[in-house]
Amino acid sequence: MTRHATRLSLAWSLVFLVMAPSACWAESYVELFIGGVQTENEHIPFSLQHRYPGGVSSEICAVPGRIHLAINHSGTAGLRLGTWFTREGFPGFKYPEWLRYFGFYLDFSYHRLDYRPQKLDTVSIDNVPPVAGLKEVPQSKYVNRFLSEARVFTITFMACARYGFFPTDKVPFGRLQPYIGLGPGIFIMDQEVTVQTQSYVAETRSFTPPFNISPQSNTSVVLCLVGDVGLRWAFNRRLSLDFFFRFRRAQPGFTYKY
C-alpha cells in the first residue's frame, strides 16, 4: 500500500468589518460581535511527495505546484472581554491618570474559510517508478482542481489605546472613542481538502481518468498577528456600539496522508 503526503503552506491576510454592541460596567466591557471576512488573494505553493512499497522514496517524484486562490466570502462572530486602566475598570486599581488612555482585551472569534474549486498549476505523475525518471511525462499541463472546507478559531490578546470626544456627566471620558489595538493570537484552523487529479502511467504513456483524493481533515495551530482600528459610541456607562476594522496575518501549514 503506497502512502502519500500532501503539504500545503498557506499565508493569509484576513480583513474583518465588524459591528459589536457592548455591555459596559464603568470602564470594563463585554462585546458580542458579528461581521464579514475578506481574504487576500494570493497563490499558495504545495507539493505531493510519494512513498513507494518497500520503503523506496524519491524526491524526483515530488509534484510542485500552485493553487490559484479563490476563497468564499464568509461571516464571523465572536466575543470580546476588555477593560481600561482606570479605577472604575477591572480590577479597580488606582492607576496614574495617564493610563486611562490604555487598556487590553481578550478576543475569541470564529469563521469559515472555504476554497471554491480552482485549478492547480501542475501535472500529476503518480504511478511513475523512480527508475523511470521524468522524461516519460509529457510537457503539456493537465488541469487539476483543488477545493476545501475549513473552520477557523482565533484567540487573541490585544493591547489597545483610545481617545475620547464629547464628554458628559454619564460618560466622563467621552461618548465617541476611537481606538486601536494590536496583539498576538492563536490561530486554529481545521481543514478538509479534496484534490481532483489524474495519474500518468509510464508503461502506456497515458493519463488515467480524473479521480478525487480526499484525505482526513487536518488541524494547524500557529501564532498570528492581529490589528484593530475601531470607533466606539457610548450611550451611557452600560451600553455602547462598536464598529471596527481588523487585519490578521497567519501562516498555517498542513500535511495530509492518503
TrEMBL record:
InterPro entries: OMP/PagP_B-barrel. SUPFAM superfamilies: OMPA-like. It comes from the Bacteria. The keyword Signal applies. The keyword Signal applies. Keywords: Signal. Residues 1-26 form the signal peptide. This is Outer membrane protein beta-barrel domain-containing protein. The lineage of its organism: Bacteria, Pseudomonadati, Thermodesulfobacteriota, Desulfobaccia, Desulfobaccales.
